[in-house]
């Protein structure tokens, strides 16, 4: 059997090209894909952090605008009135509410405890701590109780702008 040199040379050249150029290109492509995935993951994390910071900034601005000082000269009285108005008609029971002055830069500090169905307490906490509530939570605790739950909330109000 006679072997021709030209096909053998072409076969060897193709093998050398594959090992010399093809494999390194595939490795580079795999590295580039891994780097792209890493950058995409970091980008998503940064996007999430920016969105969280924007929501926090909007909430703080809303708290400043809805400050209890705007309703009365005394922030404690204004916060108490605001909380009582929010509680009016809420389907909760055994409500315990205290409002006291707070050290600067805060206007007032409130403590609220209420029993009820979990859904009703969740709606109440959303109204209290939502953008129009004017409160910043310090501590929020849910405890199961009989057929419902108990909500314990400690929150502060910032002074309003004059």
At a glance:
The chain is α+β, with helices and mostly antiparallel strands. The chain has three helices and four strands, in the order ααββαββ. It has a domain at 68-157: 2-Layer Sandwich (Alpha-Beta Plaits).
Task: State the main characteristics.
Alpha-Beta Plaits; alpha+beta; four-stranded antiparallel sheet; 162 residues; elongated; single chain
What does this structure look like?
It is elongated and about 105 Å long. It has 162 residues and is an alpha+beta fold. It contains three helices and four strands. The longest helix is centred in the N-terminal third of the chain and has 61 residues, at 5-65. It has a domain at 68-157: Ribosomal protein S6/Translation elongation factor EF1B (Alpha-Beta Plaits, 2-Layer Sandwich), CATH 3.30.70.60. The model has no long low-confidence stretch (mean pLDDT 81). It has a four-stranded antiparallel beta sheet.
């Amino acid at each position: 059997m006679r072997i021709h040199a030209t096909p053998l040379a072409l076969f060897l050249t193709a093998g050398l090209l594959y090992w010399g150029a093809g494999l390194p290109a595939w490795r580079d492509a795999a590295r580039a894909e891994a780097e792209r995935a890493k950058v995409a993951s970091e980008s998503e994390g940064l996007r999430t952090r920016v969105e969280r910071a924007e929501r926090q900034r909007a909430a703080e601005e809303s708290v400043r605008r809805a400050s209890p000082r705007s309703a009365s000269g005394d922030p404690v009285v204004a916060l108490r009135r605001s909380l009582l108005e929010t509680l009016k008609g809420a389907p909760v029971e055994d409500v315990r509410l205290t409002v006291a002055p707070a050290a600067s830069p805060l206007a007032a500090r409130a403590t609220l405890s209420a029993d009820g169905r979990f859904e009703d307490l969740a709606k109440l906490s959303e109204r209290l701590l939502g953008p129009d509530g004017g409160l910043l939570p310090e501590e929020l605790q849910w405890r199961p109780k009989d057929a419902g739950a108990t909500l314990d909330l400690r929150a502060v109000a910032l002074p309003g702008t004059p």
